[in-house]
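Weekly structure sync, notes
Attendees: PL, DS, HV (note-taker this week)

Item 1: Helix-turn-helix domain-containing protein
DS walked through the input record. Source organism listed as Streptomyces mobaraensis. Sequence as pasted into the shared doc:
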Amino acid sequence: MSAGTRSRQPRAEEPGQAREPEGARAAHHRAAPVHTDPAEVPLETALLALADPVRRTLVRELAAAGDWERPCGSFDVPVTKATLSRHFAVLREAGLLEQRDAGPKRFNRLRRPEFEARFPGLLALVLREDDAVAGGKR
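Item 1 (cont.): predicted structure, written out as tokens:
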């Protein structure tokens, strides 16, 4: 064997150690999202989360849906999957969104009561303002 070439030797198994099947790594579940308690969210974080029009669209669509009805891929927004994932993270960090995995899908719930307890009227104001703009009543 030449000096820069190495042959791949199979790794010896330790006694009592199970070997991971081929492709098993891809089958592992992704990490569960970390959720922020709305009671711990500063006002600035909440306002910044609601300032973005894409995030407001997500919030508006979640407000119109029942709890846990909307998987991440069901939102019609003009952004890439990576950008959409970041928007969901910002909403989670602001205490607006809770997510849970069900099989290959991640479902969403707007944390309206919890957020309303922390910031009374803010979410209703944002949703009402978006409705007025959409209806041309500005």
